[in-house]
Amino acid sequence: MGRRRSYLAVLTLLIACRQLCIGAEKPASPADTNTAPVQAKSDDEVDVIALLQGSEEERLKAASAMLFSDNPLARKTLLDVLRQGKNSAARMAVCRALIQTPSSKDLVKNKDDFIAPLLGVLDTELEDEAQLAADATSIFEYEKIGKLLEDTVTDASRPVRTRLNVIRALSRRPDMMAAIQLIRLVDDSDKQVARASEEALRSLSIPVGRDAQTRETIISELKRKGRNEFLKDWLIRQEAQIRLMRNDLEFWRGGYLAALGKLYGAVGDDAAKGVFLDEHLRSPKAEVRLWALERAYEWRVAPGAKLPEKLGPVLISLISDPDKAVRLETAAVLSVMGEINSAQSLLAQLEAEQDDEVATELFGALGDACYIAFLPNSTIKIPVEIRQQTLEWAEKYLTDPAPAKAQKGAEVMRKLLGQDGLAPEEADNYLALLASTYGGLKNDPDGTLRGELLNAMASLCSPQSVHRARARKQFSALFEAALSDKTDFVREVAADGLIYIDKAYALGLLRKLANDPSAILRKKVIALAGEVGGKDDLDWLSEKLGLNAEGEPAWQAMLKILNDSDAATWQLWTDGLTSDSSKLTNDQKIALLKAAEAVGAGEFRSDVRKKLAELYYATGQFEAAADYLGLQYEAAKTEQEKEEISSRLSQACLKASKGEPLAGLVEDYLSKADFDPNDALMQSINAYFTQPPAGANPAAILKALEAITVPMSRPKWQQKLAAWKAGLSKKAEAAKAQ
């Protein structure tokens, strides 16, 4: 009923505005009032009715007419229908009308008005709505809508259904940036989002890559080619895909793969799952073999998982499969299956492979197979000659002009050079080759490749690398020079290399990059200062306090440095960091003061405790505040000092329901005089019992006060104590009566 009222409200608004316009054009005369004719509905009114209540064909026709109408209320109605989502049929009609606009001879005015409402439709849980909205977004140039789509799909707080719908919208676009976003989403923390992105890429015949590093390589290659080349490749892939779909239409009818997935999901036993996959890995259909390979990969990369040994022979046979996609996926599976001795077969297929893309993936898998085989505890044994031939292939790839190949060569060389088994002279030769290849890229604008090569060199300098001493000697100067590179990634990995070599020396070089444009590099410098920095680093670290991403790491680094510092440094920085102008939070100030208290002494410790009392009180931590105020009270040397502290201490005790220290204050007071209603201490206690604050425990306070030993000459105190006790009893009885 409420839904119908909203539609009628829109219609009423249109009619009312139309009548107002007629009235404005021609004032009514008395005669007109008496003989007003029945007015026919305008075209806009008819269109609104058809859009809201007509058949599917009528709704589409009405939405199309209103889309090109000059009446602003027609436009508003369309936008409201999209936003409200109460009339799904009308909403879909508007989406269909938008989809048809590119083929219209007329132009839609202010078409961008529909961007935000369309994105809102992607929140729907209705499949048909989501599909039409995704299709409708393709009428806008990616420059106008891309950022909004990307922000939505990467927002982990959005519903998964919304993000999946946006992935659908991205997959509709022949745009390089949309493809890059889909590639990045394959590594999303949400499995549904990651899987949907992977499926979208496969539907577009865009390589997915077996891991995040491979995907970054694919992205770099896309960017290198540029939009025009991407569009050309996209069209070629789409045409090829259409031909394959036509050929296989009959085979896939009935949702064969979906049914296959359900059958596989219903198999609970690992042995039975292995038999199921073995059968489908041998399927005559490439699509089925590919499906089975994907399941095998998913199974193997799951934590603690291991594929049945019986799948080894069939997987190795697929290295030479006639289908390119199957060979690519087989290489990806074998890269993570160290338990299969596949190196010999991979090498043979690599030497015979005619497709560059497949050859590169086979080479990567071969590198992984060799690396795993030569690990100290590996049960796989392969001839040393295979590793030597793999290194020779790595040299070919490293020196290839194609960035993706050079990067793959560096990756494999890094893995094999980090292991034992090579003569020192051989290791030196390959290390020198890495250095010279990197040196040849000084004027190359491709910072990504320089970074990847430098990253391989940095890894070879790590403590885990067998030839780290030789690598450090070869690469140290290159790392230092790379700190001035314009590419963030290059500077970042150069810092890694220097840190592996000598942390203290590296910090001396990296301090000047504490405000580098790269957030990653800035964090590396901060972390390094926390490890090996000294009091000279406290100044620049303190400048980062309060910053969103770097404030906390800088603070932790400062604490580590201070913990190794002398008392003078502690006192200097404690005063500054706990001042009113400090960027530290109250919690951070408290943590600093607690640490300072542990190392301080004398007047410095007294000042620290005073500040702690103030901070605890200001932050509502009254129990801790009472403890520190109590320490101050005990340390006070004069009666005046005690009086100044007692008021604050009594308030903290009352708020924290700490009766014992409060009783001590009262006992000191009563040792000098009887109850005085004008005394600040007595006034605060009286106010507390008169109106206890929420959460207070007046009974505990009263019990502590009753336990005080007082002189017989304090009748006013005894009377007041009795009055407080009677008041509490009366309140307790009243509470029971309720």
List the helices and strands and how they pair.
Blueprint lengths: L1 H24 L4 H5 L8 H11 L2 H12 L4 H13 L3 H13 L14 H7 L5 H11 L4 H12 L6 H12 L4 H10 L5 H13 L8 H41 L3 H10 L4 H12 L4 H16 L10 H6 L6 H12 L7 H10 L3 H18 L10 H15 L4 H15 L6 H16 L7 H14 L7 H15 L5 H14 L1 H8 L8 H14 L5 H5 L8 H13 L3 H11 L8 H14 L2 H17 L3 H14 L3 H18 L2 H12 L9 H11 L7 H9 L8 H23 L1
Counted by DSSP, the helix tally is 39
Helix content: over 70%
Give the integer mean of the pLDDT values: 87
Q: Quaternary state, please? A: single chain
**How much is the radius of gyration in Å?**
38 Å
By CATH, the topology of the domain at 2-27 and 41-237 is Leucine-rich Repeat Variant
In the CATH hierarchy, what is the class of the domain at 2-27 and 41-237? Mainly Alpha
Specify the structural class.
Answer: mainly alpha
Termini separation comes to: 46 Å
Beta-strand percent range: under 5%
Q: Biggest sheet, open or closed, and with what strands and sense?
A: none
The CATH architecture category of the domain at 2-27 and 41-237 equals: Alpha Horseshoe
Task: State the total count of DSSP E strands.
Answer: 0
Low-confidence stretches: 1-40
Tertiary shape: extended
Task: Describe, in plain words, how this protein is organized in 3D.
- The chain is mainly α.
- It has 39 helices and no strands.
- The N terminus is likely disordered.
- It is extended and about 110 Å long.
- Helix 6 runs parallel beside helix 8 and helix 11 crosses helix 12.
- Among the domains are: 223 residues, Leucine-rich Repeat Variant (Alpha Horseshoe), CATH 1.25.10; 118 residues, no CATH class.
- It starts with a helix and ends with a helix.
